[in-house]
Write a structure and sequence with these properties.
The protein is of the alpha/beta class. Helix content is 35%, strand content 17%. The protein has 15 helices and 19 strands. Strands 7-14-13-12-11-8-9-10 form an eight-stranded mixed sheet, with helices on both faces. A six-stranded mixed sheet has the order 6-18-19-17-16-15. Strand 11, helix 9 and strand 12 form a beta-alpha-beta unit. It is globular, with a radius of gyration of 30 Å. The termini are far apart.
Length: 535
Amino acid sequence: MSESWPTSRGVRLGSGVDLHLDLGRGDAGGAGDAEGGGEAAGGLRAALERALRDAVRAGRLAPGTRLPSTRKFAAETGLSRGTVKAAYDQLTAEGYLTARQGSGTVVAARPAPAAAPSGGAPAARPPRHDLRPGSPDVTSFPTAAWLRATRRALAGAPSAAYDYGDPRGRSELREALAEYLGRTRGVLADPGRIVITSGYVQSLALLVRALGGGRAPVFAMEDPGLPFHREVVRRNGGRVVPLPTDEDGARTDVTAVLGGVDAAVLTPAHQYPTGVTLHPARRQEFTAWARSGGGVLVEDDYDGEFRYDRQPVGALQGMAPDHVVYLGTASKTLGPALRLGWMVLPARLVDPVAEVKLYSDHHTGAIGQLALADLISSHGYDRHVRAARLRYRRRRDLLVERLVGPAGSRADGTAAAGVGWPAASGAGCLAVEGIAAGLHALVTLPAGGPDEREVLRRAAALGLAVGELGSHWHAADEGADGTGDKGGTGGRSDAGAGRPQGLIVGYGKPGEGGYPAALDALVRVLRGPVRRAGG
């Protein structure tokens, strides 16, 4: 009796996992086997060989996976045992399977295929020492506390939590954030005015689109500032104009800039990347501008919890809650992988932002929201932030000590002297600025010394990755000579000529064990020429 030809079959592997096999006829054919006796059986054998071979090549059958016995495989697929055995034998001979006495048939280990040549740039090797800003120490993520919060949250979650939800986010998290932000940052937040997002980037993108209304809204953004955020505004239909900054933060006397803009994006607690705090008089002037109908203020409170030498500066939003959009995130306190951020909005913007959110991704994942809500409500979040603040302060102090000396920082959040260039260079000493808060410091390079490009070359020779100030200037987006760097990770653009030069040193990212060695490399870079590290 001949076997009937199936188009597909499912088989359960030894691990209990189901595998779908496509046994379409294709052009398979061949002589019959002893049990099937005919062209159909031979074609089925070839089809089964091809299906198993494709599953191994595609990785659906991983090395070491145990296949069912020929008897069980035949019973589950409706094929004859002879057909299955012939296919197993052929693939064993080809090296795809391995037959072990007493252990059955398993998928053989295969060498990784050679990478196909491509026209793209090769993948960059990770740096030996990573002092780039923007990330926390993810090795300190509170795994145990997060697991406990997740278990508690899921145990008490209603069944509706697993369905499509409110685009503004889970009420549990919005209520927890309203209490927490009011208590720790002075934010006047009603849960109904909070929208949960997947992080700061989405928050900014949603706001651009909500303010656009079919046109290109104009955003004034601090200069210098993170170039990636400027690109987010542009790619969501907005237009960016530079908002100059000085030692008191963003300037308010630039009427040519503030006139006609829809929003001004500020980092008032800790300007990025200079690290200065927005002066109290400037805070009042900006809120007065917003109240007068000038536009909406966007407060990026990216590291507001981490202040070391003074009491935390309250959020700007508390001064004008109807005119300030407050943006926060768990990326710096917990980790970017959570993809959780929040917007505290003026009442008039809640519905427009929620509508854009709905048609972007409907809502942010509910499970993570519930877990974070529990972590905040149980004060586990507070405990983690306090521990992180102490840890980052110790790192900040070690950075200052290595670069400046044991005298420490001044009350204005700067430190000077210490590591200097060789006397023959005619350069003075560098300065470390913006260290009263946050997870980074700005190390300004002295006039007469090597420029950013040379210092970055030295850093690369030691396997050290560090941020640089040059690409953060708005002029670097295009570059006076057309060579501007929009990515913010390359060499300094010539468009920054005449502006201060410096390194942006992040002390959040390295693990505890790797931080001292990274500082050793930084000091070597700043002391003079180095040889390229081997390996």
